[in-house]
Design a protein that fits this description.
- The complex is a heterodimer of chains A (180) and B (801).
- By secondary structure, chain A is of the alpha+beta class.
- Chain A is built from five helices and five strands.
- Helices cover 29% and strands 13% of the residues of chain A.
- Chain A is globular, with a radius of gyration of 17 Å.
- In chain A, 54% of the residues are buried.
- With 801 residues, chain B is α+β, with helices and mostly antiparallel strands.
- Chain B contains 21 helices and 28 strands.
- The two termini of chain B are 51 Å apart.
- Classes of the chains: A alpha+beta (180), B alpha+beta (801).
- The complex binds FE2/S2 (inorganic) cluster (FES) (2 copies).
- One FE2/S2 (inorganic) cluster binds next to loops of chain A.
Amino acid sequence: MDITLKVNGRPEQFSAQPNELLVERLRDGLGLTGTKVGCDTGQCGSCVVRLDGRSVKSCLVLTAAAAGSEVATIEGVTTPGGELSGLQEALRQEHGTQCGFCTPGMVMALGELVDSTAGGAAPTEPEIREWLTGNLCRCTGYHSVVRGVQRACAATRAEAPAGLPEAGTVAASTAAGQEV
Amino acid sequence: MTAVTGDAPAVGGGVLGQPLDSREDPQLLRGEATYVADIDLPGTAHMAILGSPVAHAKILSIQTKAAEQLPGVLKVATAADFTDVMPLPCIWIPGGVESHFPPHPYGLPGARPVLTGDTVRHVGDPIAVVVAETPRQAAAALAAIAVEYEPLPVVTRADEALADGAPQLHEAVPGNLNAYWTCGDKDRTDAAIAGAEVTVELDLVNQRTINSPIEPRGAVGDYNAATGEYTLYATTQGPHNHRFLLSALVLGIPFNKLRVIAPTVGGSFGTKGYLYPDMALVLLLSKALGRPVKWVDTRTGLMNSTVQGRDHRQHVTLAGTRDGRITAVRCTSYANLGAYPSTIGPGVATALMGRSISGMYDIDAAFCEVYAAFTNTVSLGAQRGSGRAEAAFLMERLVDRYASEIGMDPAAVRRKNLVPKEKFPYDNGLGWTYDSGNYQLNFDKAIELSGYADMPARKAEARTRGKRLGVGLATYVAICGVGPSTRMSQEGMLGGTWESANIRVHPTGEVTVTVGSASTGQSHGTVFAQVAADELGIDPDTVQVLEGDTQKAPYGQGTYGSRSYSMAAPAVALTARKIKGKLVRAGAVFLGVPEDKVVYAGGKVYEEGNEENTKTFAELAMAMWYGWGLPPEIEPALDETTHFDPPDFNYPFGTHVAVVEIDELTGETEVVAYTAVDDAGNIGNPKIVHGQIEGSIVHGLGQALMEIAEYDENGLLVSADLGHYALPRAADVPFFTLDKTVTPSPHNPLGAKGAGEIATVPPAAAVVNAVVDALADLGVRHIDMPVTPEKVWRRLRGESQ
Ligand code: FES
Ligand code: FES
């Protein structure tokens, strides 16, 4: 079937099998390999993209079902080699990525959280952790990712990141870690 | 180097020891890094593997005709197509290198063939492969291959596999016993236990777990008919090692005709250092088809084929005095190696576990015996903290049992038995000699930081909220820095375990460092640049780091056992010192002063007492490139290599304190506070190590609370996807309280000890100790992992384990 999608602002037209998954189209069809596949069961979140603004697991979405939608992938967050977004920069400062395999999915999922709370109250630590339950990471233990989101949210509110640790030092907002 | 203890500054005082940002992160954050699945060579065909659906059976026939005729299918292959390919070698056979030689080739009865032709021995055992134009066509064709099986009886537990009449896995291995291995002094230990004032015993199950890096494994084979050269892109943490094993031992092709490349690798935690059939198959099929062949695993495929971890059933005994002095420890363990000996699995199940059982304690008599058996399960391999986590678990459970038996505080018992700092180097009587340590300082710091003294009040407060609070301690020593090659040969390791580095200084003053190691997410590019920059006194941004490609990098074993910073980084430092030495000699010529008047500091050489007479690093680089005016004894150019083989291992250690709250109604266990004080010697980049410690602890908490590879009575892996195998998620853990002590290792020039996985060693013990503490007044003396809500709920209602 013939399908039209807008991917990172660019219209794409192609024909797809009815059983084709959105993640296959993005990775194999459009060469957007920043979106990762970590599982077969919609459990890991490596494949999260934003579909009309909402973060979704692209391994659980049929391409046909996404027809006519706007898809945002990690490639659309920055230009190649370009300046990092506020969230990416905050995650970088907190070393929120180790092997990086879960990272694009995290950035896309957390992007929705940061965007949707901008202007309102910053998400609390439990809220951030709850939001992250759809994304598995085996390297970081999530702490640096949570700190990154706190930092990013603080930055969108143009506040000094009060109570936030310098990377690698004590996180004063909770009983968190000293330098190791 | 003398061992200083306390909060000593890291070596160098320059960029080393600084929490520099990871230079790898921006690329990863933009999704621009290339993993194996992202590699798309022109003309690539796609491979899918047919794994056995049954755990144990004779293959009566395989029909491939129907599959061959499906659209897009290029080739279907079975074991019959690879009769001249050797089985995958196991290179760590407990008991010394002698056992690698005849009567068994490579010392490996039971070795796994690249495809199984006659008997399948676990679910997922690869039987056939399809190569097709697309991944979907390849996967679809698997369903059209008809295999006729004659079922055989199944055994999935090591102790049961060793019983009389158990199903037999390999004709060449009667009784399924791969190895009976011991360490320590049996007679002395038995005597100490027999004559002890107090003894305590436990039966422990250290359950099988699945490492689950978020990136599944993958491989791309590319054979070049014009040159006869093979290139393998693979999810590997040891490209050189895989090159050696594949070329020399499996495929029988010249070493220099195989290039192995590790692109960005999405985590490993031990699993991606192993040799798997797919690595050989993509190369063989690329040659057969004249096209690149690519294979990317699924999550369920990974669960049924990538090595699994832990899996010991143990009977353990501790003896001591009534006043808290531990006098002996003994362990009898049944280790489950799975269906085939993996690359180094047998060594993990024996030496890495057994020689570590006495932990941080000064114990007069210790003995460990391991029966390592084959069963109808996935092969056993390493899992973050492998061997050492199993050891810490049994010892730390025993210490708590002992403390409760004699009515002493568990912290006081531990404190009393720590190896005193004047006893280093300390021979633990089990085969390891600990290099350096100040265990008291480390322990006291953790006790204080965790607020241990306040726990009684916190317990009382929790009860008012319907919660039972428990506190659990665990200490550990983790052997790292594998290793001294000769010492490893005595352990049965086939192959040198040294590490190497090359530094090339370019005419423009930039530097390229190449190392044999390979990162799976540890920011090697950042840290190795720091090491070189620190030694040479230059800006780390001018230092490029290359690794992970056997054509570019000098030999090395790769990343495992937390060895990169204590093996590869010292090789970098020593190489930089060679460069500096040469620059001092050349500097004498360029500055026109005797060599002993030349000072190298801050990235330049100058005349002692006359800093005007100087040449910068960049000027020297250019001058050495030209080579003008050098005396014959000084070669032009700056290009040095070091092969670093340490005199002995290094031994990081630490103390962790877990505080849990158990919900009286639901039995749910929540980790509410976690304190870890680890000692990894001098640290190169605290920011990166901090992240590794955090991740490691969560990995350990996963084993304690939720992770288990469950096989049913037919040998089916029930937990074969992430819906059935629970991994810790962000909401399952709190922030941690972390600190460190610094006790440099004398066994490498950086004073480094392993760090990447060490904090996975104690959490399981700390959490189970905490849970037992919380339930102690109900008469609970032990609870098996994972500590699920259901298990706890039953115990709360008085049911026994
Ligand atoms: S690949 Fe989509 S959730 Fe794992
Ligand atoms: S950084 Fe490796 S899985 Fe998250």
